[in-house]
Amino acid sequence: MEKFFYGLLPLCAGVVVLAFCSRFWARTFTRRRNAWLAGCILAGFAMVLDITLFLKYRGRQDDGIRLTWRSESGTFGWKSGEVRLPAGFTYKADPGIDTFTGHFTSQDGKLVIKYDIGELAGEHVGLEGSETLKDGSRVRLGRARSDAKGHATFFTKVSFPDNGCANFYIESANENDLAVIDFVAGTFRPTDSTPSWVRPLLPEALRSDCRYHFRLPGGS
User: Fold this and answer.
1) Higher pLDDT, 76 or 200
2) What's the whole-model pTM score?
3) Three-class SS of residue 185?
4) Rounded Cα gap, residues 107 and 88, in angstroms
């Protein structure tokens, strides 16, 4: 289905539009050469659009992700975004199967922020939270509480679905520890080339880098 939607469908649509427009142009243009020229321009545009959709949504977008960590400033970046960590945090990459994973640890070892980046990381929904825009990109904060086995555990995450489908999260028994995710969310900066005013106008299929959306257990 995805191969059809992102690969064949735009191409078929381009052929149909080209055939329809050719009949119209044949009556509009006095010279057949001008009609053929306009048709070739439209065909080239449809081809570029089809290739763009196919490469972006057929598992190729993660190939361009390069993770960078600058310890002196606490800045962590990936293909299309970057955040900062509080002073004293250290970074370690973890082995991932389909996504890029890793964690950051505070100097005293009490706080561990984990990340999951890539289109197959998906976006975890079903948490109470908020959504804001930063330079046209969505920043989604969510929180949840679990009382399993009589012990309260707090979970919070920040997601950047429009910038590499990046998720940063922390789980702790101390609710005050969740503020570190607020810090990460506040330092986010998009680094891709998409103009900030264009992204909010795009349909969801072109706007979000997340292929899947997961509903967390207990989410509303």
Assistant:
1) 76
2) 0.72
3) helix
4) 5
DSSP 7: I
In the chain, beta strands by DSSP E? 68-70, 75-78, 81-84, 90-94, 100-105, 112-117, 123-125, 128-134, 137-146, 153-160, 166-172, 189-190, 213-215
pLDDT at 56 over 70: no
Phi first, then psi: what are they for 174, rounded to 5°?
Answer: -105, 115
pLDDT higher than threshold 70 for residue 202: yes
Q: Distance (Å, rounded) from C-alpha 41 to C-alpha 51?
A: 16
- Neighbouring residues of 5: CB distance < 8 A, sequence distance ≥ 6: none
Cα separations in angstroms, 196 against 22, 136, 165, 192, 218: 36, 4, 17, 10, 34
- Kindly report, residue by residue over 137-180, the tens digit of the pLDDT: 999 999 988 887 778 899 999 999 999 999 999 999 999 999 99
CA distance 125 to 87: 29
Q: Tokens 């989604």 appear where?
A: 140
Least confident range from 6-20, 34-48, 138-152: namely 6-20
How far, in Å, CA of 67 to CA of 218, rounded? 32
Q: Read off the tokens for 157.
A: 């995450």
For domain 64-215, give the fold: Protein Transport Mog1p; Chain A (3.40.1000)
pLDDT of residue 176: 95
The rounded Cα 133 to chain-centroid distance in angstroms is 13
Length of the chain: 220
